[in-house]
Fold:
Amino acid sequence: MGKVKFGAKDFLYGVVTNELVPEEPVKLPGLTEVKMELKNELKAIAADDGPYVTLSGGISEATLDVKLWDINTKAKQDWFGIDVKKGVEMYSKDLTPNDIAVMFKTHMEDGTGVYVGMLKGKFSLPGIDTKTVDGAPDPTADESTGTFAPRGDADSGMMVVIGREDAEDFDLEAFKKYVFPKTEEDVKALDTASTPTA
Structure:
């Protein structure tokens, strides 16, 4: 019988500097929706008057749409490099977003966790979409889209990792180290062979 995934929580991010995440990841509360899209370029080659082979150009685009009730000032400083003066967020014309690694959790109907990590991307500035209150409040979440690139080598670098608790040798701590590596050793956290269980 198949399983289904649902839910979205435990959104973490870290600022990527020189392919590492030197600071502790930050938990951003209020995640309401997350949508990851991966595109890979496929080309069908014809021969002998018909389809012959399909070639893949690898992942050509990886995006992550996130909706949070409030992308707070600290997150905006980390994501976009904005200045804050006396509690005022300052958005300059030449603003350049930082590279960000993110991780979030969804789960199966039996409670088994599924963790998604995206390793190096820049997020778009969230706008404001709000309206007057007429009766009960009906807030709108902040929305931002991250566009991700390979971490490491531009041709063979990693973009996305997905870890599942129903995998026999899944190790959440090793997964987190890989997504938010503080050292070169952490980048190899998923390379070590698992110890067989008796």
Remarks:
- The first strand starts at residue 5 and ends at 15.
